[in-house]
Structure prediction request, 377 residues.
Amino acid sequence: MYTVQEMSGRIGLVTGSGLGKIIKTKYSNKVLLLLVGLLLISNIITIGADIGAMAASFRLLVPQTPILISILCFTIIILLTQIFIPYKKFAKILKFIAISLFAYVITSIIVGGNIQNILFSTFVPHVEFTKNYAAIFAAIFGTTISPYLLFWQTSEEAEEEVASGKIKDIGKGSPQKIGKKEFKRMKIDTAIGMAFSQLIMWSIITTCASTLNTHGITDIQTTDQAAKALEPLVSSFPYAGIISKSIFALGIIGTGLLAIPVLAASCGYAIADSFGWKQGLHKKFREAKSFYLVISMSTILGIFINFIGINTIQALIYSSIINGAISLPMIIFLIKIANDKSILKDKINSKRSNIIGGFTIALNGISIIVMLFTIWQ
Prediction:
């Protein structure tokens, strides 16, 4: 994760452009449009599932609230903050919301579990040659190294260059002076972000393994069902079930508030790169109407996922599998760009980055092949 995201950040830092524009310029717009089309489908499904999860979780805290009202309120709040709050303030808001992810760490501590088993399973993977295992493995790959994060990381580094005055606009010239300090800042930010993402993911897996799985609850249909299922299963101290359920619900809401703007904005960046539109969260609505309309439509279309009878959890898994499939060509393009001296000059990949990148491509490709093989059996 770190290596792939660092490549994306370095490309944005050096070029001052979004990843989509570079793929379009270096290869072709047809290739970009195909990738972007798949990205849009996956992102919209994920946005819809996240909004539904947030609304269901809010009902755990305030049961009287109609699900439709919760969905509309969360959608309006997310869109208003993205469109009308200046980029610098918006970036700070996202960093603040990220703190909510520690709700999952707290939940894992509350529910507890056998420490020896947890530590053993952390470092010794459990492998099954089954269809479900293969699908979940591909989905986990797609939700950790996601195409939308590559678009987001590259464009956000370009946004930082605009904010610092090094370039006038995203995709409008490369920054002239990038010192070691900027690269060090980008690498440290990326490393910290990826490390925390693994801590949060580990906490979620530990919580599910220690409660749901050990009690044979393996068919979760909705996120509120998952949160409710925690309540009677933990008893480490008084009211632990209610506390863990509430913290779990707040974690889901915080995750949605953090993830949906990133998902929607990555759609905006990708489409804007494809058609050469003005873009950037640093711009006001009137300055980049098409960019913000894509963000708005991606979020609004996601709402309808909740009203067409699709299982929320399955929707998240399927969108993650799609992300896993898209990420394979995306990482290949990313590594080719990150090794192109005509684009990055003396900031191309190190040998270590190429080795790790190659291993990532191989692992991703094998996971997709195995998944397809088990489906056809």
